[in-house]
Amino acid sequence: MTTPFLQCLVGRLRAEDQFGAWDRKSDATLLKDYIVTKSERRQIPIIGDPDPETLDRVEKYYQAVGLAVERLTGVVASPMMKMSHEGFGRVVLIAGNLVVLSRTLRDVHRFGFEDLAALAAEGMKVASQAATMIEAHPELARA
Amino acid sequence: MTTPFLQCLVGRLRAEDQFGAWDRKSDATLLKDYIVTKSERRQIPIIGDPDPETLDRVEKYYQAVGLAVERLTGVVASPMMKMSHEGFGRVVLIAGNLVVLSRTLRDVHRFGFEDLAALAAEGMKVASQAATMIEAHPELARA
């Protein structure tokens, strides 16, 4: 829970809670939907269309990566996502004129992580890659 | 009609015509929807939600810009668009790790050009700007 990425993700989720309905919910409870264990995954059909909540969850994940990148580098990185209704698409994180991250997305209806540790580790890994890219091309990232 | 941009746009539109229904239609007829004269524009409400056809038309316009960029530089530039249902948003053209064009879109329900000459000129202008960006950072654009 102490990684910048998880803090950003929890902050991003709590920002939706305009009326304080989640004040008593723990961070772990809020992040529950991001956890899809191996046995849960096995029960999800291989082919399926993601529902709007799932797409929203993926988008918030990459928004949190962008916020973590900002904490690491001071440069804002904002996501753009392009998805087919079948759960196939692409997400990029953009800082200035630089694409700091580009990922092909597929099987988005099965998006999730084994546990909180895996979510935190993967989020930080992606954020660090993006930060490295910004450090390599600071003039473009700050354009 | 001889600018690379208009050729790309017509090609992009004709690519949708799987059954040859538009074979006898002239290029100018196909581009008709892109022409919104000043007097036509005055009759469109200032605030309005763009319909799917309009969003599609804007996306094809930027796809054609990307194709024109490819003709000019040999580097593929692909658009990503993020729109609110209210017609406000952003479009970027991405080549490799480089954002070669970034535009804020607004009032998309009134998207259009005074005449074919204006459409051709504006499309070529945008494509040239993107090409200049690629020439300035070839190693990132070809990444």
Give the biggest sheet of chain A.
3 strands, antiparallel
How many domain units of chain A?
Answer: 1
> Order of strands across the biggest sheet of chain A?
1-2-3
CATH topology assignment of chain A: Putative cytoplasmic protein
What's the architecture of chain A, going by CATH? Orthogonal Bundle
Strand content of chain A: 5-15%
Structural class of chain A: alpha+beta
* Strand count of chain A: 3
What gap, in angstroms, lies between the N and C termini of chain A?
A: 33 Å
- Specify the CATH class of chain A: Mainly Alpha
**Poorly predicted runs of chain A:** none
How many DSSP H or I helices of chain A?
Answer: 6
Q: What's the order of the H and E elements of chain A? A: HHHHEEEHH
Outline the structure in words.
The structure is a homodimer of 143-residue chains. The first copy, chain A, is an alpha+beta fold. Helix content of chain A is 47%, strand content 15%. The first copy, chain A, has a single domain, classed as Protein of unknown function DUF269 (Putative cytoplasmic protein, Orthogonal Bundle), CATH 1.10.3100.20. Chain A contains six helices and three strands. A three-stranded antiparallel β-sheet of chain A has the order 1-2-3. In chain A, strand 2 and strand 3 (98-105) form a beta hairpin. The longest helix of chain A is centred in the middle third of the chain and has 22 residues, at 52-73. The relative contact order of chain A is 0.19. The A-B interface holds A 80-82, 90, 92, 94, 96-100, 102, 133, 137, 140 and B 80-82, 90, 92, 94, 96-100, 102, 133, 137, 140.
